[in-house]
Amino acid sequence: MPKNAPVTAPKPDHEETYDEWFLRKAQEGLDRANDPDAEWFTHEDALKRSEARRSKILARMAKGNNG
C-alpha cells in the first residue's frame, strides 16, 4: 500500500466489522509511522505546503474567471 493511500471505509459486502476495520487501519497507520523510511515534516512545512497548494488553486480560479 502506498504511504499516502487514502483511507476508505470497508465495502458493505465485506465480512469485516467496522470495529475490526478501524483497528486494522489504525494499526496500518502506526506501522507506517514506525517505518524507518517514513518521511516526517514539521507543522511549519505542512502550512507552507498547504499555502502553496491554495495559491495555485486560487491562481487557476482567477485565470479561469478572467478569460
How does this model look, in words?
The chain is mostly helical. The protein has one domain (18-66). Helix content is 61%, strand content 0%. The protein contains 2 helices and no strands. The radius of gyration is 18 Å and the shape is flat.
How would you concisely characterize the structure shown here?
The protein is mainly α and 67 residues long. The protein is 61% helix and 0% strand. It has one domain (18-66).
List keywords for this structure.
67 residues; mainly alpha; 2 helices; 0% strand
Proportion of residues in β-strands:
under 5%
Number of helical elements: 2
Helix-strand string: HH
Main sheet properties = none
Beginning-to-end CA distance, first to last residue: 41 Å
Counting helices, strands and paired strands, the structural category is mainly alpha
Uncertain runs with pLDDT below 50, 5 residues or more?
Answer: none
| Global Rg | 18 Å
**In one word, what is the shape?**
flat
